Amino acid sequence: MPRYSFHFGAHPDISAAELAAVFSLLRIPFRPIAQTRQWVIVEGDDAIDPAILIDRLGGIVKIGISVGVPNPSPKTIAEFLTQTQVNRKIIFSLSGNNAENTAIAIKRELKSQEKSVRYIRPKNAATILHNNLLVCKGDLAVLNGELFATVALQPFEQWGERDYGRPRRDAKAGMLPPKLARMMINLARVDEAKTILDPFCGSGTILAEALLMGYTQIIGSDASAKAIEDTKKNIAWMQNNLPNHLITVSPHDQPTLFVSAVQNLEKNIKGHSVDAIITEPSLGPPLRGRETKTYIERIAADLSSLYTDAFSAFRKILRLNGTVTFVIPSILYGDGKEWINISKQCVPQIAALGFKIVPLSQKSPSLSYGRENQRVLRNLWQFIWV
Question: Is the pTM of this model over 0.90?
């Protein structure tokens, strides 16, 4: 059976959990062979289609396939390159342990055969794409004693367009990255026929990604009328500006949108009709780093109360065994050494309402998503209504 390598993005724990969720949801048989913080190798069959999976996954940077060169050496890798890049200048990149020295040895071996060769350091996905390394199977990785060639690359330009090209973006309110929205949808493990809800839809990032993934039973709400208007404009922009092959649903399959405080959802949604809630709620006001601890603690208490109220509303509209994929933040205080973790305040209250925690990894019930110098850390949690 073929072996595939999946290379994780900047948040490898979330990437690994998302990959497992998608394999489970799509009923793709696979067997893990080896895994590190940066990648996982799996053995599968024709059900693993790298081109389909790379479009589905938000947290996988690239997918490779084993090329049948066990215990690769500079000589055997050079042989592989001469067989795959015939009658042309050989170009390649290489990652893995001791990759730089191995690449130099490969280049030396090819030059000894009077081959024209160029080695490209694999800095990022753009390097692979713009040097045509994907086309010629020139992006290589030595992982777990096997040689893998990249066969699918994350469409980073499309991700960037969906993030920065959309007309309505509110930096002050905080913007959910489309990649994270995609990962959250995948982690929810619900098929496209199910009803999903984002009750804090903001500018519509989760709703837009769900539309791109083929979901048709989508509901979005927000307490802000401006947010609903922003959502409408962003979805219209997406349907008018993205390539046709990315739009997987009819323009007539629009989300159901309405203005509502989360506490009043039952006034607009039929009881026990929603299969999954996927949302990033308010994470609090923008912070400058000069706030007092008392002020931060007051924000944390207000958010904890909001989240508990939200789950009180969720249990009136969720189906039995419906899931909630939810962001609960941690807020950095002072000089960057102390985090105020809101989940410690609200998760016990959420559990008391009848929600069971679904651990997102074997190491921790939640997974964190953050960037350097951020004062608010997103923690992904998942619950099931029992």
Answer: yes
- The string of DSSP codes covering 73-122 is -HHHHHHHHHHHSTTS-EEEEEEETTHHHHHHHHHHHHHHTT--EEE---
Side chain identity at 157, as an amino acid letter?
Answer: E
Q: In degrees, to the nearest 5, what angle opens at C-alpha 304 toward C-alphas 220 and 313?
A: 40
Place of tokens 């713009």: 130
Helix-strand-coil split of the chain, %, nearest 5: 35, 30, 35
d(CA 329, CA 340): 9
Can you list the positions of beta strands (E) in the chain? 3-8, 30-35, 39-44, 60-70, 90-96, 117-119, 139-143, 146-153, 195-198, 217-222, 256-259, 274-279, 318-333, 338-341, 355-357, 367-369, 376-385
Helix (H) or strand (E) holding 72: none
Cα dihedral 107/108/113/116 (nearest 10): 40
List pLDDT tens digits, range 327-355: 999 999 877 678 999 999 999 999 999 99
Alpha carbons 192 and 216: distance in angstroms, whole number: 7
